[in-house]
Amino acid sequence: MRYSLLAGGKRVRPVLCLAACELVGGQEPMAMPSACAVEMIHTMSLMHDDLPCMDNDDLRRGKPTNHKVFGEDVAVLAGDALLAFAFEYIAVATVGVTPARIVRAIGELAKSIGSEGLVAGQVVDINSEGLSDVGLEQLEFIHVHKTAALLEGSVVLGAILGGGSTEEVEKLRNFARYIGLLFQVVDDILDVTKSSQELGKTAGKDLVADKVTYPKLMGIEKSREFAEKLNKDAQDQLSGFDPEKAAPLIALANYIAYRQN
Amino acid sequence: MRYSLLAGGKRVRPVLCLAACELVGGQEPMAMPSACAVEMIHTMSLMHDDLPCMDNDDLRRGKPTNHKVFGEDVAVLAGDALLAFAFEYIAVATVGVTPARIVRAIGELAKSIGSEGLVAGQVVDINSEGLSDVGLEQLEFIHVHKTAALLEGSVVLGAILGGGSTEEVEKLRNFARYIGLLFQVVDDILDVTKSSQELGKTAGKDLVADKVTYPKLMGIEKSREFAEKLNKDAQDQLSGFDPEKAAPLIALANYIAYRQN
């Protein structure tokens, strides 16, 4: 659990969670356990995704994947334990938040993982591998679930725990949906334009796995334009908030849009 | 998810959860979502346990195992989704209980799964297979975690959600620990004393897998005496409660102790 969780990574989800909490007027400690929890869930999804029966990946965050070091059985179990611990940590470590908001946050987070979230995206992704007729709609379904759902969960969790109003939570949910898709479009572009060394993970693997991607469906230039539009749409959602407090989320959207790995 | 969850089984954990809720004066609807949740978690642990990288089992609850029908990748993901959905269902569907108690229940349940619960037992079990020097202490660690932890979680959840006092919750926790161990001791005895036909599953499996068991470590007679003692210790924990309300849990303890398959 520690090996994969502490292997580094961009920590985009925890940062989103904390930034959303502060944007709606909350304090960092209210959302810190949830920020850790969303990273645990992201990590466990990568551990299971890397298994031989799924993507069969040897390298993750610049290190051998979990099952390469500890074996497949332990990689499955450590992922399960991380998933459970994420909920435990929110339940026992969140301070300064009403229990009603904690329960709401747990419900939102859980929904972003299961058969209406991350796992839904993974299953459709697996089933569409090698198919030649995957369209833009199905590609968007995959990414909205596989990547955007947990990003959305991270933001919504922060907004709920920070004491946000229903309207604020929904604006931030929309923001998260745009940057969730933005994140994946940029990932697809980087996979075909960067080397493994630059990425810290195997480059060009989407092509090898014959996966459908945005560059494959619309070309690199149109993919870049689409990324620009998503970034703008995302930032538009923040226009009603205090610009100073919105600055970290705007910076994060720009970071996601213009990152090089 | 449906295929494995709805394949049947003894439903011991949900029954324990509901009985504990009613014993402390709660109503069934308070604990019903949690009763479903503990069965989801039990099921997902079986799905992952049956995988080729773990026990590599072909049959479960009289049907082909999940990965045999849907493939390993889907079996891993469906297990993950069931685990997440268990928490979602408690968070969104529990009624008539204060949010503070729901948060406490979620923390207890999560702890019974991860690196201090079910998964801890699985990992030590995997690591001790084929070893000749596994002692009673290590065997007990495995069962206390692999089997008893979730049984304990089920009872404690029911007691918390039903409105039990701290003292009542702790008495029921002890009850659950005894019957958790009792459950496994009886399982071990049945494995060596009954035929496959009587059990409805492969008998003598532990011997073939060279697994350490109670009969192997202390003989059948001493194992039977140990089971008797555990059943008595468990029932002693219920002496302070209304006998009429305690009757279902006492019946369940006797069912576990004297079952023939």
UniProtKB/TrEMBL annotation, chains A, B:
The keyword Metal-binding applies. The lineage of its organism: Eukaryota, Viridiplantae, Streptophyta, Embryophyta, Tracheophyta. Belongs to the FPP/GGPP synthase family. This is Geranylgeranyl diphosphate synthase. InterPro entries: Isoprenoid_synthase_dom_sf (IPR008949), Polyprenyl_synt (IPR000092), Polyprenyl_synt_CS (IPR033749), Prenyl_diphosphate_synthase (IPR053378). One of its GO terms (biological process) is isoprenoid biosynthetic process. GO terms for cellular component: cytoplasm. PANTHER family: FARNESYL DIPHOSPHATE SYNTHASE (PTHR43281), OS07G0580900 PROTEIN (PTHR43281:SF24). Its cofactor is Mg(2+). The keyword Chloroplast does not apply. Transmembrane segments: none annotated. Pathway: Isoprenoid biosynthesis. Keywords: Isoprene biosynthesis, Magnesium, Metal-binding, Transferase. It holds the Pfam family polyprenyl_synt. One of its GO terms (molecular function) is metal ion binding.
